[in-house]
């Protein structure tokens, strides 16, 4: 991928950052580097040639750190603001250009979804939300998901199944955290009437679920189960790190959310390990995936709440638990109904979900399309 340095430099040279803004950008760069450590490898000329894509990423970071205040100011802009075009066409193009690996590309697409949802939260909070602005957001979400799906499919076609599966698992978990965040924000807002954002995220989740790996041989199932148990263990360990770092600073619903997520993820992992010991590899794999996705989803949700910059009140967080319990129960029953062919019960559950939105006709249309795809 060719990175348009000259164009980026021209766009950024128009503006100047203050010293405080430069310090904030450099702090962000240092934090990113600390959270995304590079594994040390032995030197070879071939490695140096292949890894020279790291230099453009550093240059882009320096361009941001030494250029204009408009670029920094655009980060706080919302749809309809004058600087929003700068946010999309300069800031986020720089982010995309810096994504020089398949893993990074998937993370960038997920990051763009998160940024749109932070804007959604702010628009509802500031009472500047409109159906037209949300429609534009939803169209962008469709593009982000299409790029992620295409990436996963390409990797599988290239025989890079393990990387594709890891990206799929991580992205599905993040989309689940996006769904929780959007539903909580909508339910806590006074202007929630016409919003369909949670339904849009749920549609993304359903579409992404169709890309799950399929292992048919007993040996393949065993290997997959081992991998997911290992990944679940790692994901839980990372969530524990988050909890240990934040348990003295967070309280109330958010702290309870982390603790309950940890307990649930550990329980699923224990079940997965028991199934694996009993040679029930399919069940072990599914339980381990659930454990891993719970841990990743929870960690990502906590980060989104923190990045809401004080706009996530305890009142909003309290809206999460009731909604989450209801949707999880419905998901479990829908899955059981699908496995048993109980279409009548599934129809009842879908009718219950329609009541979450004010415009039931639009939701019914989306659900009908989803059923046709299945």
User: Could you say which structural class the secondary elements and strand pairing correspond to?
Assistant: mainly alpha
Radius of gyration: 22 Å
Helical run tally: 16
| Envelope shape | globular
Structure description:
There is one protein chain. This protein is an all-alpha fold and 374 residues long. It folds into three domains: 100 residues, no CATH class; 113 residues; 102 residues. It is 78% helix and 0% strand. It is built from 16 helices and no strands. It is globular, with a radius of gyration of 22 Å. The chain starts with a helix and ends with a helix.
Describe the SSE topology:
Layout: H1 5-12, H2 19-35, H3 45-50, H4 54-66, H5 69-74, H6 84-97, H7 102-125, H8 131-157, H9 161-188, H10 197-209, H11 218-246, H12 252-277, H13 281-307, H14 314-340, H15 343-354, H16 360-373
Structural features:
disordered C terminus; 3 domains; 374 residues
Could you give a quick summary of the protein structure above?
By secondary structure, the protein is mainly α. It contains 16 helices and no strands.
């Amino acid at each position: 991928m060719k990175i348009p340095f000259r164009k980026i430099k021209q766009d950024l040279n128009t503006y100047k950052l203050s010293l405080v803004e430069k310090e904030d950008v450099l702090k962000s760069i240092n934090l990113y580097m600390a959270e995304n450590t590079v594994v040390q490898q032995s030197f070879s000329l071939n490695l140096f040639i292949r890894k020279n894509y790291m230099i453009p990423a550093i240059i882009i970071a320096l361009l941001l750190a030494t250029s204009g205040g408009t670029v920094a100011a655009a980060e706080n802009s919302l749809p309809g603001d004058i600087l929003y075009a700068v946010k999309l066409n300069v800031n986020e193009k720089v982010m995309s250009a810096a994504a020089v690996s398949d893993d990074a590309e998937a993370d960038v697409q997920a990051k763009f979804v998160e940024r749109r949802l932070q804007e959604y939260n702010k628009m509802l909070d500031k009472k500047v939300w409109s159906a037209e602005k949300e429609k534009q957001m939803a169209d962008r979400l469709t593009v982000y998901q299409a790029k992620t799906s295409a990436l996963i499919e390409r990797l599988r076609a290239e025989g890079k199944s393990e990387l594709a599966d890891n990206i799929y698992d991580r992205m599905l978990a993040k989309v689940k955290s996006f769904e929780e965040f959007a539903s909580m924000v909508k339910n806590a807002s006074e202007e929630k009437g016409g919003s369909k954002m949670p339904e849009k995220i749920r549609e993304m989740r359903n579409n992404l679920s169709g890309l799950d790996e399929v292992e048919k041989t007993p040996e393949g199932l065993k290997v997959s189960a081992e991998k997911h148990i290992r990944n679940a263990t790692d994901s839980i360990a990372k969530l524990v790190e988050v909890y240990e770092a934040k348990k003295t600073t967070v309280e109330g619903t958010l702290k309870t959310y982390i603790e309950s997520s940890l307990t649930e993820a550990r329980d699923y992992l224990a079940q997965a390990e028991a199934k694996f010991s009993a040679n029930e590899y399919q069940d072990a794999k599914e339980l381990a995936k659930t454990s891993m996705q719970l841990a990743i989803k929870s960690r990502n949700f906590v980060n989104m709440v923190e990045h809401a910059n004080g706009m996530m009140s305890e009142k909003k967080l309290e809206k999460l638990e009731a909604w989450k319990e209801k949707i999880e129960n419905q998901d479990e029953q829908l899955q059981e109904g699908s496995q048993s062919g109980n279409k009548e019960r599934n129809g009842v559950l879908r009718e219950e979900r329609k009541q979450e939105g004010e415009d039931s006709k639009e939701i019914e249309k989306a659900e009908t399309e989803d059923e046709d795809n299945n």
